[in-house]
Design a protein that fits this description.
262 residues; alpha/beta; 8-stranded mixed β-sheet; globular
Length: 262
């Protein structure tokens, strides 16, 4: 395991090397998950890409730090990690809040970013009342109180079938996320809006969404793609909010086709 102490928190990350000259892709994960959601994508890309994954603060094995968070906290952590690893000109692949972090990183540090892959995300996700209700519920009753509704948005009915061990595992990942980290990141999402910044993105950008995403539906992701100059838009069939879990082969094919155009 690899850790770095950045911005007063210990950040858990993983690097996978590749031959010199290969593109570098950095994965940022969703609310209520850790970097293991990318496993089935990474194993298909390893060797052709140098890879960095990490647990954002308050998730996985990273420290929670002081809460609530701002999106600047999450952006600063990714910025510091890339500086720590002495990486530049990377492709950022962010899902959900990870995609919001990717947008924030580009707005702050254009020198770090070669291209963006924005999965199941948007410049603005949800509204103030919805996030406040979610924060209140998890602080009073725990994440398990919301798990069924969240998982219905994350995964298709077929994936949520009885006896699917993978589905049970992802429920565990969600419900075992530290409440402070989950609620703190909800506050960061509540308070951020990168709508104006989306129109200023000047690197190649791919916007991807599962066709059955209940958290950031295709129409929302399409609106983001239309706002970003020259962005590509792809829909992943038979996938919810986490196509990296349900349809990794399709997502990898889309990523490879996009990177080939850079």
């Amino acid at each position: 395991m690899q850790f770095a102490y950045l911005n007063d928190v210990a950040i858990h990350y993983q690097t996978i090397g590749a031959p010199a000259g290969k593109p570098i892709i950095v994965f940022a994960n969703a609310l209520g998950t850790d970097f293991r959601i990318w496993r089935d994508v990474i194993v298909r890309l390893a060797g052709d890409f140098a890879i960095v994954t990490y647990d954002k603060r308050g998730h996985g094995l990273s420290d929670a730090g002081e809460t609530p968070y701002s999106m600047d906290d999450h952006v600063s952590d990714l910025e510091a990690l890339l500086d720590h690893l002495q990486l530049r000109d990377v492709i950022i692949c962010g899902l959900s809040v990870g995609g919001v972090i990717a947008q924030g990183l580009y707005a702050r540090r254009k020198d770090l970013v070669r291209a963006l892959i924005l999965c199941d995300t948007a410049p603005k996700i949800g509204d103030e009342n919805g996030w406040n209700d979610r924060i209140r519920t998890v602080e009073e009753s725990g994440i398990a109180a919301l798990a069924d509704g969240i998982l219905e948005k994350w995964f298709t009915p077929a994936f949520r079938s009885t006896g699917n061990g993978e589905f049970a595992g992802y429920r565990n990942m969600l419900t075992r996320t530290p409440v402070a980290g989950y609620a703190g990141t909800c506050a960061a999402l509540r308070d951020v809006d990168y709508t104006r910044e989306a129109g200023l993105i000047g690197v190649p950008t791919l916007c991807v969404v599962g066709d059955k995403d209940g958290s950031t539906p295709p129409d929302l992701v399409l609106a983001m793609a239309k706002a970003i100059p020259g962005a590509n838009y792809e829909v992943i069939p038979e996938a919810g909010h986490l196509p990296c879990v349900e349809q990794p082969e399709t997502l990898v094919a889309v990523i490879r086709a996009f990177v080939a155009t850079l």
